[in-house]
Design a protein that fits this description.
Elements lengths: L1 E5 L8 H4 L8 E2 L2 E2 H11 L4 E6 L3 H8 L8 E6 L5 H7 L2 H4 L4 E5 L2 E3 L3 H11 L3 E7 L7 E5 L5 E6 L10 E9 L1 H4 L10 H11 L4 E5 L4 E3 L3 H12 L28 E6 L3 H12 L10 E5 L2 E7 L5 E8 L2 H18 L2
């Protein structure tokens, strides 16, 4: 399957992060943003790619070459003058020829199922299919109003709150049929959202808007850039992150048994939450918190600590009277279970 990547942007709002780099080459957790997009395309069967370039096109070419290192075939088309989103893609017309093809930005953070998007487009026979994402604060984006059959009825571009009529935003990810691109003039500035899609609706063409499962963010500002990095590290955005950028798991040390102690284990929902509740109760008893919770008295020591490899607490009591130690350990376990409800 074929895909066109819109990768001509300078990223002026992101200059604090990009510096002189073209926006698609901004590193995100060990890889350029555009490389993450290429890996997403390859994952979903899009191995033939054409990149629409303008700003510092040579840097992008040098970064990815012909695509062989990624197991793909990559071509490039360079705009002599700014052609807008649709105009830049039209500049790649010889690449897609008579095939339906996918359009995606080279500077977005996304983990959509692109193969499913293509399949739905082909099944519908629509002129264009737009991937939509639900956004709680959609003011920065164009909105798409759809009917019960996912057909787009109208667009609202970057509204103020009084004009927000849906939470479905246009992600800039499209599947297009060649007949849709026939409406785009060659060599002239032309935009998908502002020009082409309203014209398709006016001409009676079907434009689908499909709400997608998964993560999408337009990496347009330093704040959104850093948020995407955090989301990827925390698993909300699924990226192929090099191991060196993954947070290292702390080494768990086995908890040695305490000599002469009566020891019990108590499973729980959240070790840290339960330890917090127990810590509050023991504050007035002058407990020591340097190593779990340790309560020292003349005739006994009570030690409560989280197990490193299971959601459970370890309760140990040392006392000269073994029966007393066992009774105290059982009472502490009953207390922990009551707090864990």
């Amino acid at each position: 399957m074929k895909a066109v990547i819109m990768a001509g942007g300078e990223g002026s709002r992101l200059k604090a992060v990009t510096g002189a780099l073209p926006k698609p080459l901004v590193p995100m957790l060990g890889r350029p943003i555009m490389e993450h997009i290429l890996l997403l395309l390859r994952q979903h069967g899009f191995t033939e790619v054409c990149a629409a370039l303008r700003y510092r096109s040579g840097d992008v070419r040098n970064a990815f070459g012909d695509g062989r290192k990624l197991g793909m075939h990559i071509e490039y088309r360079v705009e002599d003058q700014p052609l807008g989103t649709a105009g830049g893609v039209k500049n790649c017309a010889d690449f897609w020829a008579e095939d339906d093809f996918l359009v995606i930005s080279g500077d977005a953070a996304c983990d959509f199922d692109l193969n499913a998007l293509m399949a739905r487009h082909r099944e519908s026979g629509s002129a264009a299919t737009i991937a939509l994402s639900r956004q709680a604060v959609p003011l920065r984006y164009g909105l798409a109003v759809t009917d019960g059959e996912n057909r787009v009825r109208c667009f609202v571009e970057k509204p103020v709150w009084q004009r927000v009529v849906t939470d479905l935003v246009n992600t800039g990810i499209y599947v297009l049929s060649p007949r849709a691109m026939d409406y785009v003039p060659r060599g002239q500035p032309y935009d998908f959202a502002r020009d082409l899609f309203p014209l398709l609706l006016e001409r009676g063409e079907t434009v689908l808007g499909l709400p997608m499962e998964g993560y999408w963010c337009d990496v347009g500002t330093p704040l959104s850039y850093y948020q995407c990095c955090v989301d990827a590290l925390e698993g909300r955005l699924k990226l192929d992150i090099p191991p060196s950028f993954l947070p290292a798991a702390p080494e768990e040390e086995p908890t040695p048994p305490e000599d002469g102690a009566v020891t019990l284990e108590c499973s729980c929902r959240s070790r840290a939450e339960l330890m917090g509740a127990l810590s509050e109760l023991m504050l007035e008893l002058d407990a020591d918190y340097a190593d779990g919770i340790r309560l020292n008295r003349d005739n006994f020591t009570l030690h409560i600590s989280p197990l490193p490899n299971a959601s459970a607490l370890r309760i140990a009591v040392q006392a000269q009277d073994t029966e007393f130690a066992r009774s105290l350990a059982l009472s502490a376990r009953d207390l922990a279970r009551a707090l864990d409800l």
